[in-house]
Q: What sequence folds into this?
């Protein structure tokens, strides 16, 4: 069946559960907690396409309601928690999961508890969790420690874990792959994305495989996941005890869905690789120069695309999709750090024109 025949998303329906109802583990009895997430733009990048000699599209997931891809999985995880009678949810987070969990829990009237790593959560993300009334604790440890503790909490207390080890998260997130197939009319040849806890690459791979099984596309993409070099356990083949990167969202040393990432890369003839912080920052700036504002972790996909191109892995004329996972407004500090502060001038036309070099 052609993806353009309306076989995928149900036209006119908002939010990923309603749009993809038949393809998700929900029933008529599931209370749908939604903020109209999903249906994000797939933007063609003229500049990147020219640079790498292929067609490059950017899936701008920063345009989800809380500013990251997490909302696709959270709508399902929170809806199912509510259906199962849960009163509280808990998550560990580098920031975006907590922002999303807090918003959807608030909408559902559930308590949301959040464990964040010490000193490494972007301010915008923390502000979101607090604004939505989450109970936030900063632990003296990193994300991996926080995740271990939340798993223990979910085992010993009546709270639902909403990290991506909750299977409903991955189910919701797979809808992004459906949307890519729907927009392109096929799968891309290469799929490039950042990898942290590895739930999202697991979800995309599932989404593409299902799309092929349902006849919406007739081939699968090669999946390339990029970790930051100082936080690249999958590339190294062992956990990283003290992960370090400027891209705090993916500062993770022991990904929960490690196996899912390896499976996606191996089965698709792709790879899990790493990019340096410097390359992430360069990609962040070049995306901004093209009008697209993302957070640092998201820029890892474009840094990764450049690496693939430099090694001759981007076949001329092929189609590439890069996933931009989160919005730049989450963490404006990096934009401010790289630009001169606006100069103060008198409120008169002449000095303004002179300063702007428009005189
Ligand atoms: N990009 C952004 C903006 C993220 O927030 C994350 C993960 C990733 C990429 C990596 O996705 O973990 O599925 O491989 N953020 C999590 C959080 C860990 O707590 O918000 P992944």
A:
């Amino acid at each position: 069946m052609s993806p353009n025949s309306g076989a995928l998303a149900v036209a006119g329906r908002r939010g990923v559960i309603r749009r993809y109802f038949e393809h998700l583990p929900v029933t008529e009895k599931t209370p749908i907690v939604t903020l109209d997430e999903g249906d994000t733009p797939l933007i063609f990048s003229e500049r990147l396409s020219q640079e790498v000699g292929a067609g490059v599209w950017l899936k701008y997931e920063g345009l989800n309601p809380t500013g990251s891809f997490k909302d696709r999985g959270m709508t399902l995880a929170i809806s199912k928690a509510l259906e199962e009678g849960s009163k509280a949810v808990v998550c560990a987070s580098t920031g975006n999961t907590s922002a999303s969990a807090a918003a959807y829990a608030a909408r559902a009237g559930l308590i949301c508890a959040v464990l964040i790593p010490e000193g490494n959560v972007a301010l915008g993300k923390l502000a979101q969790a607090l604004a939505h009334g989450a109970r936030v604790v900063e632990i003296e440890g990193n994300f991996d420690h926080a995740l271990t503790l939340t798993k223990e909490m979910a085992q010993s207390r009546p709270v639902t874990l909403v990290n991506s080890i909750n299977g409903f998260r991955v189910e919701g997130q797979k809808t992004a792959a459906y949307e890519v197939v729907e927009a392109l009319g096929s799968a891309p040849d290469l799929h490039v994305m950042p990898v942290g806890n590895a739930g999202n690459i697991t979800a995309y791979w599932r989404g593409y495989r299902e799309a092929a099984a349902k006849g919406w596309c007739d081939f699968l993409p090669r999946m390339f996941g990029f970790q930051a070099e100082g936080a690249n356990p999958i590339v190294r083949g062992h956990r990283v005890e003290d992960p370090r990167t400027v891209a705090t969202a993916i500062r993770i040393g022991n990904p929960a869905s490690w196996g899912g990432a390896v499976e996606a890369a191996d089965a698709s003839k792709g790879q899990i690789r790493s990019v340096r912080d410097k390359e992430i920052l360069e990609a962040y700036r070049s995306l901004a120069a093209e009008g697209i504002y993302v957070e640092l972790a998201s820029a890892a996909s474009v840094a990764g695309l450049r690496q693939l191109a430099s090694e001759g892995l981007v076949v001329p004329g092929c189609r590439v999709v890069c996933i931009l996972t989160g919005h730049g407004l989450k963490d404006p500090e990096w934009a401010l750090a790289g630009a001169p502060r606006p100069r103060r001038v008198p409120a008169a036309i002449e000095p303004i024109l002179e300063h702007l070099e428009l005189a």
In short: Residues 68, 93-97, 164, 194-200, 249-250, 295, 297-298, 325-326 surround F0G (CB under 6 Å). The two ends are 60 Å apart (CA to CA).
